[in-house]
DNA sequence: TTAATTGTGCTTCCGATAAGCACAATTAAT
DNA sequence: ATTAATTGTGCTTATCGGAAGCACAATTAA
C-alpha cells in the first residue's frame, strides 16, 4: 500500500486509503477500529481516522467513539460510488465557495474551467459503485 | 503568477504556465524567447523551456535555437484546445505504457478507473480551444 | 474504575516539483 | 571569423503540501 504513483493529478494516498477502508468495511460487514483498518491497509491509525472523518461528513460511514467503538458503513456498497468517495476526499471539493478571486483574469477563467473538468471526473466516477468495483476484484 | 492553488489534483504550475505562454504567443503573433515569455508569465526561463519542450513534442509549438531563436505556435489558436495542452503537460499521459502491474489487484483496478477518469477530463477540456478561451478574457 | 477508542492539535519528516545555475550546441548578426 | 543570443539539458538546491506520528482530551463500554 505504499504510494507508488508518480502522478500529481490522480490517486493521492487519501483516495486509495479511503477506497481500501470502505472495501474492508464492506467485506467485514461489521464495525472496525481505525487500528484494525490501518493495519489491513498499511496506513497509520491517525491518518486513517482523518480520512474516515471526511467519509463520515459525507455520510458514507459513521463512527462510534469510546471502548468497542469504530467505523461502519452507513450505506450499502451498492449505494456508494467512487464519485462519492472522490468528492468526500478531494480537498478542492470541500473548500469554501470563494475560490480564485484574486489574480489575473486569465487565471480565474482557467481555474473555472478546471473546476468544471473536475466535476466531470466526479460524475464519471459515479458510474462505479463499490459493489461493482468489488466484483472486479479477485480477493486473495 | 505565483502558484496559489492548494489542490493536488488540478492546476499544477506547469499547466498554468503552458496556457499563459500559448496565449502570449497567440497575442504576439510572432516568435518569443523563453526569457521574454518567462518575464511575462512570472516564471523562470529554464523551467519555461522545459514546459515549452513538452508542448513542442505535442506539436503545439515549435522552437528555433541559436541567436534570434525562440518559440512560436505551430497551430492556430482555433486548433489548439486546453485538452491538447493538458495532455502534453500532464506527466501521467507521457509515462510508459506499463503503469501499475505491481501491487494488489484492488490498487490495479482503482488505478485503471482513475486513468479512465483522467481521459474524460482531457476530452472535456478539448471542448475549449485557445481562441475560445481568449474570447472569455478581458485583457488589461 | 479501567480500558479502548475517536477526534484533533501539533510537530516532524518526506518526496515531488519548481528554482536556478551552468554550459554545450546551435544559429544568426556583425 | 567572431561574437552574441538562444535552446536544450544535466545537475544541485530550495520549497512546500501532504503524510507520519505523537499526545491527549473526551467519550463510552467493559
Automatic annotation (TrEMBL), chains A, B:
InterPro entries reported in the protein's UniProt record: TR_Rrf2-type_CS (IPR030489), Tscrpt_reg_Rrf2 (IPR000944), WH-like_DNA-bd_sf (IPR036388), WH_DNA-bd_sf (IPR036390)
Protein name: Rrf2 family transcriptional regulator
Listed Pfam families: Rrf2
UniProt feature coiled coil, ranges: none
Signal peptide: none
SUPFAM superfamilies the record matches: Winged helix' DNA-binding domain
Amino acid at each position: 500500500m505504499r504510494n507508488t504513483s508518480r502522478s500529481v493529478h490522480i490517486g493521492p494516498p487519501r483516495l486509495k486509503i479511503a477506497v481500501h477502508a470502505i472495501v474492508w468495511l464492506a467485506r467485514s460487514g461489521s464495525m472496525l477500529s481505525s487500528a484494525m483498518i490501518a493495519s489491513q491497509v498499511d496506513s497509520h491509525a491517525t491518518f486513517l481516522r482523518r480520512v474516515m472523518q471526511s467519509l463520515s461528513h459525507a455520510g458514507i460511514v459513521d463512527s462510534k467513539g469510546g471502548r468497542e467503538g469504530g467505523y461502519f458503513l452507513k450505506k450499502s456498497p451498492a449505494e456508494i460510488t467512487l464519485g462519492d468517495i472522490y468528492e468526500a476526499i478531494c480537498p478542492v471539493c470541500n473548500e469554501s465557495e470563494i475560490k480564485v478571486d484574486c489574480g489575473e483574469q486569465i487565471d480565474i477563467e482557467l481555474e473555472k474551467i478546471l473546476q468544471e473538468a473536475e466535476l466531470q471526473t466526479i460524475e464519471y466516477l459515479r458510474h462505479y459503485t463499490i459493489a461493482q468495483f468489488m466484483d472486479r476484484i479477485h480477493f486473495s
